[in-house]
Specification:
STM4215-like; 144 residues; elongated; 20% helix
Amino acid sequence: MTHARKQIRDAGKALITGLTTTGSQVHASRSYTLKTLPALRIYTNEEDIEPDNLSSPCDLMRVLNIVVEAVVAKNDTLDDELDKIIAEVEIVMGGSTLSGLVRELILTNIEIEMSAESNIETGVARMTWRAEYRTKENAPEVVT
């Protein structure tokens, strides 16, 4: 089995694959070099973990940040394209449980910036989602 974080990333990738604007250009890695734009990246970063009871093994309440990055080539309609992709992602992810893996999934932040992707100027919209889920302390691969 794989850690619950990977299962959550994979479920997120499946959910955002096939959107009108980005299609199959979805990559579950922050370091994947994008060859075709527009595209999406999905990855996880910070995770807060707290014991939820005093049993042994105890339940762990986990709050994970899932980041979805929309990347488009620099052009005159860059902001409009990013807003369209953001809307498409919000529609499918908003309120999702990612195939029952998370108890709650809430969009908490959007950052938009210019970047250089493989020497190509790009616009990047970084959407951060807060996902709450639970595991046992000795079973990080099993969501409870």
